[in-house]
Amino acid sequence: MALLADMTGDLAEHAAEASKEWREIGSHGQSILIVIDDDPTGTQAVADLPVLMRWDEDDMRWAFHQGKPAVYVMANSRALHPNEAAERNKEIVTSALKAASKEGLSLGFASRSDSTLRGHFPLEPEVISETVAAITGRYPDAILLIPAFPDAGRITLHQVHYAGSFHTGEFKPVGETEFAKDSTFGYRSSHLASWVEEKSHGRIKANSVISLDTTTIRQGADSVYKDLANAPRGSVIVVDCMSELDLRVVATAIERAERAGMSYVYRVGPPFVRARIGQDVTPPLTSNDISALFSSASRDFARGGLILVGSHTAVTTSQLNGLKEVGGIMSLEIPVELVLDATSRARVIDDLVHQLTAGLTDGSVILSTSRTRVFGSNEKESLDIARTISDSMSRIVRGVVAQITPRFVLAKGGITSADVAQFGLGITRAMARGSLLPGLVSLWEPLEGPATGIPYVVFPGNVGTSTALREVVEKLEGATL
Fold it and tell me: Over 50: is that where the pLDDT of 1 sits?
């Protein structure tokens, strides 16, 4: 189709320039990039980077001492109301800058969010910018908006953001997808400059948004650098991207610009961080890799793993059904109406803890929310309902882990994976070790708390084929622990 032809036209020439200078990024000693992740799924495109579920100065300094070019801080702000999200971003930036000052380090900041445009924008990158300015005395020069995630079929061409599949060649403007109908973060526009105006309620006009178009990017880092240098201060800059190579060209130009004294706050999808720090695409972890990472854990593992499904996207439901069709896996469902009722919630949680604990002695078990979603009468009520359901799942996980050690824990969905990590498993510090599917599903090694030594899998709700969940579970079950 014409869209794919436009994407692949001059990649050969583009690749040569991209790979040459991009590979030198890591040797320039750039500042550490603090990635404020609005849910834990953002680590899916990187490997061997520290992850923090807390953000006090001691935790920040621990992360800095790991000697890595980026640190992920799990804000879980997509599950928060706007004022709470703003305060959390402010706290993280303040703590990071204080810790960096004591260590003699310089920092950059990325606000990692959903590649299908759900989340608090422009709130979060603006709060980051304002907090940096309040502490350092200087505002970043611009906000770079780069939501693309080619591994998952999310691409931007001529400022229009698409969701689709390279396998089928079919792409749809993201404003026409189920993601745009999100009860909390819905939107209409697929054209990113218009989307910026929409999400800022008209405060940032579409005609003021700067575009780094495919034509400029395919001319190489020199052209991108010139456009960055000429952009008015305080701009929002929208960046086209159809491939990893596009990200590498842009990252190369950004590196030059920052060495020349400019600074940016990034609002990005998952793969930008990989490109920005000069990290290559790593192959998916195998069952043997998982065995090597976790076989030294001094734990008696149960026969099965705990599979938690909270996301309600059509992709997730298809994957859940595909896993159930395999057979041999116990499947339980959280009755949403009952956990939303305070009088029945505790009883339901206790019953599910008992059933799951017993089931894990025989094999892997699935715990999912009922597939029929319950909405509130407004955005706030819908978010409160989602938080109550996720909190109930975390309580169930906490009860199970207190009695038995699952072979692994897999959480499907952004809010689900964040709450399970922090409140269900008590993870405070971890390392994101790599992906289980190419750039899509992240494996964490918890380093503190009750989950130390348990493989924890963060599986986004809106990625992968219908067989992806089954493939990941088979890989986990094939590991020798």
Answer: no
Say how far apart CA 185 and CA 116 lie, in whole Å.
10
Residues above pLDDT 90, as percent of the chain: 70
DSSP structural state of residue 480: -
pLDDT digits (tens, 9 = 90+) for 289-303: 999 988 766 678 899
**Digit-coded pLDDT (tens) for 65-94:** 999 999 999 999 998 999 999 999 999 999
Cβ atoms of 6 and 112 within 8 Å: the answer is no
154-157/160-165 β-pairing: antiparallel
The pLDDT of residue 26: 58
| Sequence-separated (6 or more) residues with CB below 8 Å from residue 92 | 34, 36, 55, 73, 75
Domain CATH for 327 = 3.40.980.20
Residue carrying structure tokens 């906490």: 398
- Clarify whether residues 354 and 417 are in a common domain: yes
End-to-end CA distance of the chain: 47
Residue 121 · residue 199 · CB < 8 Å = yes
Tell me how far the alpha carbon of residue 93 is from its chain's centroid. Answer: 18
Q: Does a structural domain hold residue 272?
A: yes
Q: What is the mean pLDDT of the chain?
A: 90
Q: How far apart are CA 269 and CA 203, in angstroms?
A: 23
Query: In 3D, which of 220, 178, 175 has the Cα closest to residue 195?
Result: 175
State the residue range of the domain holding 213: 2-276
What are the helix (H) ranges across 43-181?
57-64, 82-103, 123-136
Please state, in angstroms and rounded to a whole number, the distance separating the CA atoms of residues 280 and 33.
Answer: 16
